Amino acid sequence: MSLPTLVVLGDQLSRTHGPLARLGPEDARILMVESRALLHGLPHHAQKVTAFLSAMRHLARDLREDGYEVHYRRLDHPDADDFGTALTAHLTAVGGEAWWTRPRDDGVEAELRAGADAAGAPIHTFEDEGWIVPDAVFDAWAEGRTTLKMETFYRHVRRWSGVLMDDDGEPVGGRWNYDAANRAGPPRDRTPPTRPTHPPDALTREVQADVAAHLPHAWGAPEPFGWPVTRADALEVLDAFLRDRFVDFGRYQDAMVSGERTLWHSTLSVPLNLGLLHPREVVDAALAHAERVGTRPPDGEDDADAATADAATADAAAVPLNALEGFVRQVLGWREFLHHVYRTRSATLRAANVLDAHAPLPPAYWGAPTDLHCLATTIAGLEATGYAHHIERLMVTGNVAQLLGVDPTALLDWFTATHVDALDWVMVPNVLAMSQYADGGGLTTKPYAAGANYLHKQSDACAACRFDPKKREGEDACPITAWYWAFVDRHQERFTTNHRMRMIVAGWRKRDADARAAILARAEATRAAFLAGEL
């Protein structure tokens, strides 16, 4: 009797959970495919492609060394057109059943099923064990809700899991959310510790050569490459974050510093999205570290200043509660929430465009020169590394696109192509719902939109920019502020019914008519110039 074939996808590279944690070489053969359709579909960042393919090839090598029969279809293989084509050819040759874990991105399972059906092979699918919150828990919580808010879900999951809950069933520290302590601007008295990198080994260099030869349309700099591509690499990134950057992660998570790509962020999205780490083990590691070194009050609150301002204090290694809660919220809250929103509502989100946004993506997003220093530095860093942290994504690239009325699908494609940690399930809800408000508030209470004042507060980019964030008028006034008010003006009827936007609309309407007209005129002129690549 022929062995079944287990298809292992590039974002499910785990041997600690799922079928590879239970199936031995005698139980199944392995098929892995570098789908040309997927890789050629967008001008993916060279480092993104390298990270995924290298992680896949490293796992395939390890499985072979452990005795598994591995059939690996590289991107230049004649059967690697797509997952379905590869599976049909493989099963026709070897027979047996087709097994796979439920794919995370839309369309992949349909390809696999078509491939197995074409070969006449029986199918067995495993549940995806790479999440903390089971489908049934989310579905019961979401039943009957027309809008899904992460904060409500997060509190529900905290109660369900017991994470950061005290013995009386209350949140540790007395509050669910310490985000107010996580909004400090760029620090003047410290620099972020060096992030661990993993120079390419022979296998990764082989991938880089293949990417250069077969994917000439890939965007971004291929080197220097240092992303984790093995389980050991991923654990090192996790340990280094907890040891070196966790303490300051909270207060500076919204800060932007020119030339600093990762600051105190964990960069764990890459190994998490590859499947090299499980989100529960990441949360547990953060909790265990905090228990080991101790916790302290939130930064900048109550009597915490004396304990947190000076790194020489006795409890300097203790984790501030705002850092611990903020990190747990990102993994247990936001990441799990987005997965389930995508699982249940991706088709609706893809079709959403309530703000009627249809402008093309500006040339600056692909690296064309721009005088907007905040955007230029973000794009330059993204092109060099494939990475931008969440506030750059939300309040620079996402914010500018939203204010300009860029087609949300065009922006979705750009985010998916250019970010090293991008997968469809990540980007559809993040870009369309959170960043671009395309669904009209199904996930967020208001648009994430801001003028130049916010960028000036949270970054150091304005100091080197030819535009002045404090000016409202004149040629040197930052156009982002004009775009913000034009955005409010364009959607004022919709926003008057939003409790978090109506005061902003009222303030805009109270302005002198001539002043409003001047702002709108500048917004239109600079918008046209920027979309044409002339600003």
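(the above was protein one; protein two follows)
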Amino acid sequence: MLILMTCIVIVGILGGGYYVSVSAVTGIVLTGVLFYRMYVKKRITAAWDLNMAAFAVLVFGYLLSCLWAVDSGMALMGVVKFLPLLLFYVLVSGLTDEREKMIASLPMLGCLMTAFSFVMMQFEVFEQWVSVAGRLSGFFQYPNTYALFMLICLILVMWRFDYKKIDWLDIVYGVAAVFGIIMSGSRTVFVLTAVAVIWVFAAKSSGKKVIISVFAAGFTNISFGASTFLGRILYVQDALPLILKHPFGLGYYGYYFIQQSVQTGVYTVVNAHNELIQILLDAGVIPAVFMGAAVLRSVFTKRTQSRNRIVLSIMILHSLFDYDFQFLAMGFVLILFLDMRNIKTQKVPVLTGTVVGLTGAAAAALSIMCGVSDVCYTSGNYKAAEKVYSGNTMAQLALLTKADKAEEMKAIAEKVIVDNQSVSLPYSALAQAAFADGDVEQFTEYKLKAIELAPYQYEEYENYLEVLVYCNDLYHQMGDKDGVRFCVEKAEEIPKMLEQVKENTSALGWKIVDRPQVTLSHENLEIIEDMRRRMDE
């Protein structure tokens, strides 16, 4: 229990376990604990149930998606990221009494995190680590998920609160939870707090319903930010056709890479802000069905106590509007509240132990490679990140943005395109390299491909026109009429391309803060007209 609880604490401190590097270390530690139980104790106690099947299918789904992923290298990092969930479930499901102790300790952890992060927030040097735009984010570095964790802590405190025997420490924990929720500024959690408070009091004592309903009304008066809420709907709207087209998933980070070519509004997000949609996008329909069935079974079964049902329901509701389970710590918390069945102690046959051992060793090696690469990437050492693990496309793209020589840009871009043909940046870089080599036709080909993959990147259209104008002037000086005609015709296509983008933009795309720019400036339109006039003279 101590090692598992330590994992929750350390993961929570390290950004909530959002980064692959944290998952990598956690996975290695949990694998070591599992090996100890298997090879020293010669047996393993776990819940061999739907939950375990769901986590196993989830991890296998991420692994299998590597075969057809948008980016197979990044897809493999997804396996490392979510493997600890399966390992943690196997280890914790056999600890019935200890699991309840772990749950009981969460309010204390939430209180300590809130206290430390609030103090750190007062100092500029630490502020960026515990707050976002003035909103307290705890160690998660994301206010909304931090707020959800504090709401879970509040539910636990309220549930065990006894008016006849007041525990003043619980009062402190409860105040810290409410303070954290308020300081997070999370509108969604404000509303869910009202729901949770009413539910807890209704479940514990019908006499408090009226009083607490009045208290909760203050929370429900807080409205969702229109643009934020509509943005989340837009993400889902654009994601659904992808799910239908790719029912077995796009792989980890696949949605991020492909979204610009399919989006109907201006946004850039790594996650779809809906965990069910995210699993469908990443790993496919089958893992999503298993995970949904496992969690919902725990919610609706009579075996689950009311406290756990409330916590699970709140987590599910919030996850439909955010990406909570991209944080490993929240996945661990979810597991603690699941209904676990068919708990058995199994002896470990030699063959099974050997297979598990070899698999674990391979997983550990992969975790080390991906984890070190991720640490290098997040610390800004992109060359080292790419060298340790060449499948880290994010590191390669970062290197591409820093490249200043045409040859270097071309080499990096071509390397990215081998594994990922869905990103605009490499094609834009190849266009720039082609222009440096004086190959106008190839520049045009690459630039149009870059625009096709990211049609809302208005700067690409302006850069495209700028180069065409430059080349047009050179062709005039050389007396190359075919070259002039080529440049003019390509330039005249730009307004039509933007008009098509305008037609493809959904109604929601016009209602969020970042609205698309789909018309050239008056100055640029005049430049195109001037190019036509000069050609006709």
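Reviewer note on protein two: Confidence is low (pLDDT under 50) at residues 207-225.
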